[in-house]
């Protein structure tokens, strides 16, 4: 049932939001020269997939978890994209093709060993990763791997269709701020 919602919402989201995607893409060309950021992430059953986002840092920025990056790495336009959560819009393509869900554990990098171990212990990789979830709306990010893995497992154990909608509406309503950036 959730896959049907994911497909429909991502399809119609891309259909109706394409003008915004286009504007952000064009501004991104002027900001970084390469507005789309594609990065290999850990997917369901720990299989790799290519996550798409709008670029918020210069092209040559080292590929590390957000909480390990420096605040100065983020461009001014990138800061706006993160605050408005517009940087996440290209992930609707990931949702449409089935690599991600709108709701699920945020996909981590393969170099986040402690988080992978903690999530593995709790069966989190049995689920498709998501754009938002219980941890995100409670502002738990990847800088606290044990707490994040516990919250992800809690969400997956209890996830109902009503929770799915609740997490989406909470995120759209501004709850949760994403991963914190090292100052």
Would you write up a description of this structure?
This protein is mostly helical and 183 residues long. The relative contact order is 0.16. The chain has one domain. It has a two-stranded antiparallel sheet with strand order 1-2. Helix 1 runs antiparallel to helix 3 and helix 4 packs parallel to helix 6.
Structural class: mainly alpha
Helix content: 40-55%
Give the beta-strand count: 4
Distance between the termini: 41 Å
Number of spatially distinct domains: 1
Spatial arrangement of strands, main beta sheet: 1-2
The global form is: globular
State the major sheet.
2 strands, antiparallel
Strand content: 5-15%
Overall pLDDT metric: 92
Sketch the topology as an H/E string, one letter per element.
Answer: HEEHHEHEHHH
Task: Provide the descriptors you would attach to this structure in a database record.
single chain, 183 residues, mainly alpha, two-stranded antiparallel sheet, two-stranded parallel sheet, 4 strands, 46% helix
Compact summary:
This protein is mainly alpha-helical and about 180 residues long.
Task: Write the topology of this structure.
Blueprint: H1 2-31, E1 36-42, E2 48-54, H2 76-84, H3 91-97, E3 101-103, H4 113-121, E4 130-132, H5 134-137, H6 145-158, H7 161-172
Parallel strand pairs: 3-4
Antiparallel strand pairs: 1-2
Helix pairs in contact: 1-3, 4-6
């Amino acid at each position: 049932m959730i896959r049907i919602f994911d497909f429909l919402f991502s399809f119609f989201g891309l259909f109706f939001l394409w003008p915004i995607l286009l504007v952000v893409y064009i501004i991104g060309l002027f900001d970084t020269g390469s507005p789309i950021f594609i990065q290999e992430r850990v997917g369901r059953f720990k299989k790799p997939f290519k996550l798409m986002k709008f670029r918020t840092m210069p092209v040559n920025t080292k590929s590390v978890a957000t909480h390990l990056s420096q605040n100065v790495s983020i461009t001014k336009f990138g800061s706006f994209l993160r605050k408005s959560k517009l940087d996440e819009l290209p992930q609707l393509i990931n949702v449409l093709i089935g690599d991600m869900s709108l709701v699920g554990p945020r996909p981590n990098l393969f170099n986040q060993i402690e988080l992978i171990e903690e999530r593995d212990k709790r069966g989190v990789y049995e689920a498709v990763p998501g754009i938002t979830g219980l941890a995100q709306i409670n502002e738990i990010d990847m800088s606290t791997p044990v707490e994040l893995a516990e919250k992800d497992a809690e969400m997956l154990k209890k996830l109902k269709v009503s929770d799915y909608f609740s997490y989406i509406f909470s995120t759209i309503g501004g709850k949760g701020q994403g991963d914190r950036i090292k100052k």
